[in-house]
Design goal:
alpha+beta; six-stranded mixed β-barrel; 24 helices; about 20% strand
């Protein structure tokens, strides 16, 4: 019996090649899209779950409540020590100073040097007890002794080739560092990106920026300081958070507790909580999952529509089977078998597509964070579940409907009135509502990302590069100044920390004009010299620019901060004293507002000041003419003045674009989903109009005989579908406006949702539907009526 079902099912599928191809293509596209979304979602959900004790590991974070809540994933060494030694619920604790950059020379060979950017951490052996790192050679014990390092395998191979790295030396800041261990390369699904781990006791010798207060001051907070704790039980999280208060009180941090709140963030949440440095929000993953399900639903509805629409061509078959004794169950199984074969073909096609598309997506879509298979077993299980859903969705309902057609109705060839099928119209409206909603969402996200990437608030970023230089001495600054004067393509430069609009967490509370109370809000820092304003085109609107190397620090404040400090006018703040954290100086000028952070955030009070410890980059304004000729000259002067450094540069435009990488990926994913939905819906409309034209062949012939033109007949066949697309548009407008209005609330600077966005999406949808339907309706209308009426 099964063999008979399969044989007849394959015969029916191959007999109607056009509709079978439409079904397979629609299902394969939907399955491919759904699989890619699954891979992206599962990959992100797997981050750092491979650590054996991950469920009980937490990261120490803090909130700062001033005029508004500020969030940070940093901590202090003093807090780490308190948690480790004074809180009984803490089974184990680890601390690291992350994202450090160094020039590393191998065996002291100046010709074999490597620049390691933000991939060096300082820690001790406790770090490797807490997390699951696989040692290939050596051990972490040596990290409890100064002057030692543990390397990732790829770094060891880069430095020493295929030979053994353990026991060999590298040189950092003229200090020899011995390799005591090599660990396996990090899996793709981790946020721990460090590739070199230096012994914690080497921190002060290698990074003079840190002082003795680092070890005792609980307020020595930085986002580069990471504290992780392993609890005896995850349920003790709240108890430990309360114990942190006692730790703070013992360390003279009682007064700041009015503003600071310390929390524990589960390790499996650190990848998703963007307030504390997470890279992707879970809401995006759920949104993509819903989109994947909707696309699968569109493809299933297409299959159901086409299968039921073909019933008039199979009524004789159904009637004959029943006359010969075929039961409803047998007919049901026959249609279900056809659905199963079609779904299997589509699934196999989709798996091949995914293998090819994932490689392309990792190059063009996920270039900075390629997506990988987390588990082939999980993927196979997902594929099996998806296949079951598709077979059930595409097979059960059509098979149930067609198997219950009565013999009398089947022989009269009027089993189902397709033109008036309410179910078919609901499905078509649903498909187009999803498609148009995705189109609207895509347009709004594209416009918002364009705004974020291309809107500069108060500064110029064109043709500016940043070059890491480390801390410069007075002689090197003079040499740079003299050298840059002789390079025609350089307009200006500044020794700074970061360019504007690069996400920075450098900030402090302030006290204005020697007042007793400190302000209830913090100010962000732009750290640079006097050349910063010229290089980035910052506009001075009151007072003067800062001067370099002053005994008493000088400050420039932006107009937002000036208006918050004084109500009498911006000029009133000039000449007044200001305490910014531990730095005390005078305000010498007011500059026009410029964005220090991304445009996701509103304009914030900002101070421009010097801090020689943090001014480790050159920002160079180029003329924009013959840049390719200027860069080699710049590199040569750099190598001459800073022989211990390695020349590298980045355009500020590129750095700003990376700030909005999350929104950019979101835009591309939804855009691709919208295209897939449009294609699947168009395939469904093409199949339906061809069937309707076939069923109304005699009607079309009669109308032509009575004088109807091809244009009139084509219009008659098309308008039924166009009206359904327009009905979907009426549902799309309020639905997509509500969804995208909520999404845009996440941005301080955002576009307005204008009417033309909906109109554009609606017109495009109607045109796509009209041309898709017209192709087949014109063909039907142009047919010779003699052929259609011959049997009459």
């Amino acid at each position: 019996m099964i063999k008979n079902y399969l044989k007849i099912a394959w015969r029916n599928i191959t007999a109607r090649k056009f509709y079978s191809i439409l079904n397979v293509c629609g299902l394969a596209l939907a399955i491919s899209c759904c699989m890619l979304i699954y891979l992206y979602v599962s990959y992100n959900l797997s981050f750092d779950t491979y650590h054996k004790q991950s469920k009980n590991i937490f990261r120490l974070i803090y909130n700062l409540q001033l005029d508004k809540m500020l969030y940070d994933n940093g901590s202090s060494y003093a807090t780490y020590l308190g948690l480790k030694t004074e809180v009984p619920q803490v089974k184990q604790a680890a601390f690291s100073v992350d994202r450090q950059s160094f020039i590393v020379s191998v065996n002291g060979d100046i010709t074999k040097r490597f620049k390691e950017e933000n991939t060096v951490s300082f820690t001790n052996a406790d770090w490797f007890k807490l997390f699951s790192f696989q040692f290939i050679d050596g051990s972490a014990a040596g990290l409890n002794t100064p002057g030692n390092a543990v390397l990732r395998q790829k770094i060891a191979r880069k430095y020493f080739g295929n030979g053994r790295a353990t026991g060999k030396l590298v040189v950092i800041n003229n200090r020899p560092i011995r390799v005591v261990g090599v660990i396996a390369d990090a899996p793709y699904n981790t946020d721990f990106k460090s590739e070199i781990y230096l012994s914690f006791d080497s921190l002060l010798p290698l990074v003079p920026l840190y002082d003795r207060h680092f070890f005792t001051d609980m307020g020595y907070l930085s986002s580069k300081h990471s504290t992780y704790v392993l609890l005896n039980n995850a349920g003790e999280k709240n108890a430990v958070e309360k114990q942190i208060i006692n730790v703070a009180i013992k360390r003279n941090f009682k007064e700041p507790l009015k503003y600071y709140t310390f929390k524990l963030l589960p390790l499996n949440e650190t990848h998703f909580d963007t307030r504390y440095g997470g890279v992707v929000q879970k809401s995006l993953l759920w949104d993509l999952s819903i989109i994947g399900l909707l696309i699968i639903a569109i493809a299933i509805f297409n299959y159901i529509n086409l299968t039921i629409a073909q019933q008039t061509r199979r009524t004789a078959e159904i009637a004959t089977r029943k006359v010969l004794g075929g039961s409803n169950k047998q007919i049901f199984m026959q249609f279900l078998t056809e659905s199963m074969i079609t779904s299997l073909i589509a699934m196999a096609t989709a798996v091949i597509f995914v293998q090819l598309l994932l490689q392309v997506a990792n190059v063009y879509l996920f270039a900075d964070e390629p997506v990988h298979f987390v588990s082939y077993g999980s993927f196979c299980l997902f594929t099996a579940v998806l296949l079951f859903i598709i077979i059930t969705g595409t097979g059960v309902y059509p098979a149930f409907v067609l198997s219950r057609i009565s013999i009398a109705r089947a022989l009269k060839n009027n089993a189902i009135n397709l033109s008036a099928g309410l179910g078919r119209k609901v499905m078509v409206v649903f498909q187009n509502t999803v498609t148009q909603s995705l189109m609207v969402c895509t347009l709004i996200i594209i416009l918002q990302v364009h705004l974020l990437k291309n809107t500069d608030i108060g500064f110029n970023r064109k043709s500016i590069i940043t070059i890491p230089v480390g801390q410069l001495n007075a002689s090197q600054k003079v040499q740079i100044n003299n050298a840059f004067k002789n390079i025609p393509g350089i307009q200006s430069y500044s020794i700074c920390y970061k360019p504007p609009s690069v996400d920075t967490r450098q900030s402090a509370t302030i006290r204005y004009n020697n007042q007793v109370k400190w302000e209830a809000w913090p100010a962000l820092f732009a750290i640079a010299d006097s050349g910063y304003c010229t290089t980035f085109g910052l506009k001075l609107i009151a007072g003067r620019n800062i001067r370099n190397n002053q005994a008493k620090p000088e400050f420039l404040v932006n107009e937002t901060m000036a208006s918050m400090l004084e109500k009498r006018g911006l000029e009133s703040v000039v000449g007044k004293s200001l305490s910014a954290g531990d730095t005390q100086g005078n305000i010498v000028g007011v500059i026009k507002d410029f964005s220090v952070k991304s445009l996701v955030n509103p304009m914030q009070p900002t101070i421009l000041l010097e801090d020689k410890n943090l001014q480790t980059n050159l920002a160079v304004k180029l003329s924009g003419v013959e840049t390719s000729a200027v860069l080699p000259k710049l590199r040569d002067e750099y190598n001459r003045i800073l022989p211990d450094q390695l020349f590298s540069y980045q355009f500020v435009d590129e750095q700003i674009a990376r700030l909005y990488q999350k929104e950019d990926i979101q835009q591309r994913l939804i855009w691709i989903s919208a295209v897939v939905a449009i294609v699947i819906s168009s395939l469904g409309l093409l199949g339906l109009i061809s069937l309707i034209a076939l069923q109304r062949t005699k009607e079309i012939g009669i109308r032509k005989v009575l004088g109807a033109t091809v244009r009139q007949i084509s219009f008659m066949l098309s308008m039924d579908f166009v009206w359904m697309v327009m009905m979907a548009f009426l549902i799309t407008v309020p639905l997509s406006w509500w969804v995208m209005s909520k999404w845009l609330q996440n941005f301080a600077y955002r576009i307005n949702i204008n009417w033309w966005i909906f109109a554009f999406a609606g017109i495009i949808s109607i045109l796509i539907a009209f041309f898709t339907v017209s192709f087949q309706s014109i063909k039907a209308a142009a047919a010779n009526p003699v052929n259609s009426l011959r049997s009459e």
